[in-house]
Each structure stands twice: as structure tokens, then as C-alpha cells.
Amino acid sequence: MTRRLAEVAKKVGVSEATVSRVLNGKPGVSDATREAVLTALDVLGYERPTQLRGDRARLVGLVLPELQNPIFPAFAEVVGGALAQQGFTSVLCTRTVGGVSEADYVDLLLQQQVSGVVFAGGLYAQADASHGHYELLHGRKLPTVLVNAAVERLDFPQVSCDDVVAAEMALAHLRALGHERVGMVLGPRDHMPSRRKLETFLAEGGDPELVEHTMFSLEGGHAAAARLVRRGVTGVICASDLLALGTVRAARRAGLTVPGDISVIGFDDSALMNCTEPPLTTVRQPIDAMGRAAVDLLVAQIDKAVVPADELLFEPELVVRASTARARAA
């Protein structure tokens, strides 16, 4: 108990006596200090006293699939900042292979009495994944927002980049440069944003024989693109910047140049894509606007407003750099 008082007091910058008054429900403490002490308890992993568990903590879970892809730390920064402006503290939960699962994180966040959860790049976007933990959140009526294309049966507000527009932009850019054999490197077959991009590609006359599915990684992009290179593509549209960098590597391993022999387009416009060699042409997700919208939707739910389980679509932007060029004459 003494250790807990000392740690919480140090975290908040108050005396141990003040912390003790809060934990015992005694008067003489301002509302702001009381809230700061309770939040510190949550952040440090201590359980609140039974009599203080009625109200949810001003904590919000932010569940991400990884931090290796620069787009996710960027999103976490936007959401964390927007939450702080609203008086909430974000709790970052990152899945690791063989480590804590998304469902385990949901259980942990529920135990911590969080006010809500924002998911980005989660299992909700994979049709064949288990979705029981989302159903648990829905049953508990915990405010929740999903970022980017969930499966249809989940009944939460969503904030998404428009995959249809993204695919149209990328394909139109390559065709305007004279590319006829355009391929696609996408995520897994059950990944909803990849499905949307593929449907658009095919609807616009893309060749289904020039489509490859893989895991979202540099290595996955390399392996998938190597197969497309052997089929003679001159342009490749990728579902992430990491996949695009893997595609550039595959082209070079095959003795080809980018963009001289093959043009490559990524998706996200994550950090440092203007510093690669060559700088990457990509379709930019409006991360700032999407992150702020996700927080606004979440806080509205926390404030008991009626928030429809609709999907807000944000339009992407084609950022043209040096990884695309005119197709060579046959």
C-alpha cells in the first residue's frame, strides 16, 4: 500500500496524504486532482478501490497490429494528441507474433475500465479472422471506433480511406504514362481494404492474372512482385508502402530499374517515402483528418451521443515522385 501511494503521488506530483484522501473518498481534494490520481492508478496498473470503480477511467485503448510499418506510429501520434486535447490518455496496445493477442488486449482494457477503444489495422478487417472480442465490446456497449474497412457484420462507427478512389488514382496514373501490363500486390485475400482495391482494379479492366496476394511486409512484397516481374509487368500498384519497397527490391534483383523498366506505386505515404531511392510515388492516406475524426466519433459515444454505425470515407491523394515514369516503347 505504501509503495502504491508513493508511486501514484510521484506520478501526479502531489503528496501521499492527498493520494490517500482520494483513495479513501475523503473531502478536501479538487476534482482535477482526484481525476489525476485515479488516472495515475489506471496507468500504473493498480486497481481502483471498489467504491471508485463506478465511473470509467479517462483512458482509451489504441490497438495497433505493429509498429514496424511507419503509418501506425504516425496514426498513434495523431490519435494520442487528439485524445489528450479531450482530456483522455491513450493506452497503446501492439500485437506481437506469439505475444499478447488482440482479444487479450480487449480483456485487459475492459479490466482497466477504459472509456473506449480505437482499433487500426485490426482483425476486424479480415473476413476469416475471429471476431468474438468485437462482439464482446458491442455487448458491453463500450464506445469503439474502427479505422479502415471492417467486415460488414460488425456494428461500429468506422473511419476509412476510400480504397476505390485510391485504386482508381493509381491505375489512371500508370495508364496515363502508357503502361498496359499493370499488376497489383495486395494483402491477404480476406483483407477487406485489399478486396476493395482489387474489385476496383478489375472493374477498371485490370488483368486478374497480374494480381498477387501476400502478407504486409517488405519480404512479402518482394516475393509477390518477383512473380509479377516474371510475367512481364511494367507497372505495379501496391497496397502499402512496405509492399512497394519490396517490389522495388524484387525489380532490382531481377536486373531491372525503377522506374526505367518498372513503375511502382505504394499506399499510405508513410514516413521517409520521399527519402527512398527512388523517392516513392504513393497514394497518401489523410492520417491527420482520419485520426481526429476517429477521436471525435469516440468522444461523442463516451458523451452518450447517438453515433450511427456508418463508415466515414476520406479521399486519398496521389503523391507523384520518382518511382513512376513513362512506359518504354515496345
TrEMBL record:
Lineage: superkingdom: Bacteria
PROSITE patterns reported for this sequence: HTH_LACI_1, HTH_LACI_2
Ranges where the HTH lacI-type domain occurs: 3-57
Key words of the record: DNA-binding, Transcription, Transcription regulation
A single MF term (Gene Ontology): DNA-binding transcription factor activity
Protein name stated in the entry: LacI family DNA-binding transcriptional regulator
